[in-house]
Write a structure and sequence with these properties.
The chain is of the alpha/beta class. Helices cover about 30% and strands about 15% of the residues. It has helices at about 20-35, 70-80, 95, 110-120, 120-130, 145-150, 240-250, 290-295, 315-320, 330-340, 350-355, 355-370, 375-380, 390-400, 425-430, 435-445, 495-500; strands at about 15, 35-40, 55-60, 85-90, 140, 160, 170-175, 190-195, 200-210, 215-220, 235, 255-265, 270-275, 310-315, 340-345. It has a 4-stranded parallel sheet with strand order 3-2-1-4, with helices on both faces. The longest helix has 15 residues, at about 355-370. It starts with 12 loop residues before the first strand and ends with a helix.
């Protein structure tokens, strides 16, 4: 597809907060293709952005999981010295950045309390039910005693997963009659959501929203994976029920940012499993098009969904596909997709991210040995966000002080986040007066030809228009110089923290 570059006055300086993932490379190329200037940061020294022509420069920074303050200081410096207009988070570093007030005008993401309510699997389940949408029956468990007293382990199949988990990390698939492992790690500090296991077709969705309106979206089934959850083949499909669900959530909570969902589809229902309020592999379905770049940078752009039937693969991942228990037909279909589908990694105009894969693989394996990690853990361990009880209690108090009722369920007495048994009187008063927004939301469900359900939380303030607005342009008079990839050149105030990170 031939893409025309934007006029100079419409081009933006964009910072991507991660350079290691394939989606980071694909998004950088899409932004560059329309004329934007793309920078990136990453705790790794070598990654795909380091070799891409689509990224003007990539910088090494402290790992947020290890040195959060040093990471934030470096992002702040990058934003001002590179004169960044838009800061786009790609993974769980989003949670570190969303808490920094002076970065909010640049950050393309929901506010922190909304992020938390969506990311927390238990509070998201409550939000889903409150919106009159379908989710697998679920129970919150904070101990092994809860597991054995609240669940019908003898007769039902469950997915047991940490409320702040990601992908397949920590997930246990319980089958009727089996013993739940004693080393599951469940506790007050690591609560689990236990969902009844639903058999059906797995679907994923990805969307970019602005002010509660979806500007770009994609839906794709889970077909080829390398670990049971990480897709390496993508085919855009039409699913009105999934798109309607995304629209209701985005509109109800006035989302500005990226948002993705996992679903199980049965002939009767569409069940939503969890939410990822960040970038996901759906970005690949906009490969070589300008539409996703427009959604990120132009508040007035019209909605353009991914073309139905578009197919994209990641060849390195497809080659790592586990053929173990697959049938002959499945293997043949996989080979057909491998040989006949466009690769998102390799392009003639930007070949080195693909050509450097052998070098990167050796580098990654060396880092795995140094940190005692397996390969799939290496890509996440230093950028994941694992909240502490003290941190969540602080967020709870801030929500009360700010009169932020979008956090009502996330910080309520039945929440997985805090152990506070004293309800916030301000939020309780708001909770008793939700009738107008209940009626509006139920009308949305009626318009979607779905049966509305009784609301469980205050909706009026959830549509509060005081939420952070879409990104504003910022121009700095500071010189365009910044720290180098050499650790010795980190800002003076974060030098010690940076040394701890590497």
């Amino acid at each position: 597809m031939k893409v025309q570059k934007l006029p100079v006055q419409q081009r933006r300086r964009i910072l991507l907060t991660n350079g290691r993932f394939p989606v980071a490379l694909d998004l950088a190329r899409q932004l560059k293709k329309v004329g934007h200037t793309v920078y990136s940061v990453d705790p790794m020294h070598y990654h795909v952005h380091k070799f891409s022509r689509s990224v003007k420069k990539s910088y090494q920074v402290p790992a947020p999981h290890v040195a959060a303050d040093g990471y934030v200081d470096c992002i702040r410096m990058a934003v001002h010295q590179l004169r960044i207009d838009i800061l786009i988070p790609l993974h769980e570093e989003i949670f570190y950045l969303a808490q920094v007030d002076d970065l909010r005008p640049f950050l393309f993401a929901p506010d922190f309390h909304t992020l938390l309510a969506l990311h927390n699997k238990w509070s998201f389940y409550q939000l889903t039910v409150a919106a009159g949408l379908s989710a697998p029956p679920s129970v919150l468990c904070k101990s092994m005693e809860d597991i054995y007293t609240k669940l019908d382990l003898a007769n039902k199949e469950y997915a047991l997963k940490p409320v702040f988990g990601r992908a397949l990390s920590g997930i246990h698939h319980h089958k009727p009659g089996e013993i739940v492992p004693a080393d599951l790690g469940i506790s007050e500090d690591l609560p689990y959501i236990c969902q009844e296991w639903i058999q059906g077709k797995q679907l994923c969705s990805y969307a970019v929203a602005r002010g509660g309106e979806i500007k770009a979206s994609a839906v794709y089934p889970v077909i080829d994976t390398i670990d049971g959850s990480s897709c390496v083949y993508f085919e855009s499909i039409e699913s009105p029920r999934v798109k309607q669900f995304m629209e209701v959530i985005a509109r109800t909570y006035n989302i500005t940012g990226q948002i993705a969902f996992d679903f199980i589809e049965t002939p009767e229902h569409m069940y939503v499993l969890e939410c990822n309020p960040r970038a996901t592999s759906g970005i690949h379905l906009y490969n070589q098009t300008p539409y996703l770049a427009e959604a990120f940078t132009n508040p007035l752009t019209l909605r353009v969904d991914a073309a139905i039937g578009k197919k994209v693969q990641m060849v390195p991942g497809m080659l790592m596909w586990d053929k173990g228990e697959k049938t002959r037909h499945e293997k043949m279909q996989h080979t057909k997709r491998l040989l006949g589908t466009h690769d998102s990694l390799f392009t003639i105009r930007d070949p080195f991210p693909a050509l450097m894969q052998p070098f990167l693989y050796v580098t990654y394996k060396r880092r795995c040995r140094e940190n005692n990690l397996v390969l799939k853990e290496l890509f996440q361990w230093d950028v994941v966000w694992e909240p502490t009880r003290a941190g969540l209690q602080k967020a709870h108090n801030e929500a009360i002080f700010a009169n932020d009722s979008v956090a009502f369920i996330a910080y309520g007495e039945n929440s997985a986040l805090t152990n506070s048994s004293i309800p916030n009187p301000i939020l309780m008063q708001q909770h008793q007066q939700p009738m107008m927004m209940m009626m509006m939301l139920q009308q949305q469900m009626i318009d979607m030809n779905q049966q509305p359900m009784m609301m469980m939380m205050p909706q009026q303030q959830m549509l509060d228009m005081n939420r952070p607005q879409p990104i504003n342009t910022f121009v700095s008079d500071q010189p365009s110089t910044i720290f180098s990839g050499d650790k010795s050149n980190f800002p003076q105030t974060t030098h010690v923290i940076a040394q701890q990170a590497f």
